[in-house]
Amino acid sequence: MDEVEAAHVWGSEAGMQDTKQMSVLDAIVTRRSIPQFQPTPVPREIIQRLLDAAVWVPNHRLTEPWQFHVLGESAKRRFAELRRDSRAAAMPNPTAPEVKPALQKVVEDTVSTPVIIIVTARGHDDPELKEENYWAAFGAAYAFMLGAWSLGIGTYFRSGPLRDAPALRELLRLSPDQRVIGFLYAGYPATVPQKRRTPASQKTVWLD
Ligand SMILES: Cc1cc2nc3c(=O)[nH]c(=O)nc-3n(C[C@H](O)[C@H](O)[C@H](O)COP(=O)(O)O)c2cc1C
Asked: Nitroreductase domain: from which residue to which, for each copy (predicted)?
């Protein structure tokens, strides 16, 4: 299945859930980061079901380091303002009138995103386990993304300096040992972009 076909089959039927089955391989290959979503809400039960699946990722010593912060309307608005402020902080002249619409768009795009889940992970005193906890939490995020795609729901995983902003930590009421891994946006796709990959054969070394 090519990406355009995937957009047609999996991206356009907002109500579709289990009526069609997608192979794991098709989900891996056809999933794309979705920049725009339809306004259709994603039912809470589906989000919960995807999270319930996501925690089955491999996890060394079963530390289960993740926490999923699903933003409601007021948390989403506060997060949107934090995103705007973070974007403004990176601009040479954030108070210039010409950048105001761009900053306002950050807020609007964020609050209109159907689902925003902030994925956090606990660290660890042992640096090796700390690193592995972060990998496991991203693994859970990716499992969510693949599961979502198999149900016709698109996702976009974002990172950036906002991850470590004190105001965000306050919003999420994080304990000192929790770290934001990334921002997971989800919803029924409005478009499915095409992306490129270098064939794995060019990145593979077969050793005798
Ligand atoms: C750890 C991680 C962090 C990412 N952070 C961002 C980000 O901050 N902004 C962004 O636009 N995309 C981010 N992405 C998404 C990538 O840009 C996207 O996966 C890439 O362009 C490939 O597109 P595809 O997912 O559609 O194949 C991130 C992806 C990963 C795995």
From this structure: 28-188
What's the pLDDT score for residue 83?
A: 97
Domain carrying residue 100: 3-194
Does 157 contact ligand 1 (Cβ within 6 A)? yes
Is residue 35 lining ligand 1, measured as CB closer than 6 Å? no
The CATH code of the domain that includes 126 is 3.40.109.10
Domain count, the chain: 1
Nearest CA, atom 25, ligand 1: 33
Q: 136 and 142 in contact (C-beta within 8 Å)?
A: no
Does residue 159 fall inside a structural domain?
Answer: yes
Residue whose CA is at the smallest distance from ligand 1 atom 23: 33
15: which 2 tokens? 């109500």
37 lines ligand 1 (CB under 6 A): no
First to last CA, the chain: 34
Q: Dump pLDDT digits (tens) for 128-170.
A: 999 999 999 999 999 999 999 999 999 999 999 999 999 999 9
Indicate whether residue 33 lines ligand 1 (CB < 6 A): yes
